[in-house]
Amino acid sequence: MTNSFRDQFKFYKRKDTPLDMSNIVEIDDRMNPEKCTRRIQFEDTIEVENKIFGMKKASDWFVYQISCVPGNVNGISTLKKLRWATFGYHHNWNTKVYSESSKSEFPPDLKRLCHCLADILNFKNFDPQAAILNLYNFGSSLSGHTDHSEVNLEAPLFSFSFGQSAIFLIGGKTVEENAVPLLIESGDIIIMSQYSRLCYHGIPRIIAANKEAWNSSNVTQNKLSNNSHDKIFDDDIIEELYDSKQWTPYNEYVNKNRINLNIRQVLLPGQQSLDI
Asked: Per the UniProt record, which residue ranges are transmembrane (predicted)?
């Protein structure tokens, strides 16, 4: 008998011979790793709910995966492959065209930050409506491109950098023109508007940061929390990120990666929709 599904189905369906159980995997606590299985351990995160339904603690469960026929992909295992996310008007990577049918609420705290920067830099009436979060590891790059998808090309584009450093290259309206290489470090903001948006720019290389600016003690928890009269940040988030245990995974990520968040205005002043 082969191991094909068809042959095995016929084999176990047969009633004219004694059932051979020698190759059947039994689900118990004596699972044999050679039989293509492995145990998965869970923590007691919702013990109260378990007791309500009369179940054992999650740490006492016997849960197994058939390793040669895995189930759904674990989101954590694919996290390292994540390269971008979008907010507000969602950027279409294939058509490079925005759509009213593909947008979500723009994060209010990020919008407030952009308004603050725009006011200081005299970009009046700037309205952040779309954002792209780019995630880079040390082997990543971003090919040369121009930012021309938005209806409003006069408005500035704010590009925030966190974590590892990058070489940012900006040239002219063709790839043959001379380019200027800039070192972009954690905390830097690039602002592009009008002509510069239409110039070719990109990230040829990510390089190690020479200091951990993200672990700076310049900003205290009290300084961020003292805005109760005009709420900007969620105090629960601030408290969580100042907890060393909660901060650890973020710290580990930016120690090996670069995070770039760029924000742009899509519509013209006074324009309410792409469809108008």
From this structure: none
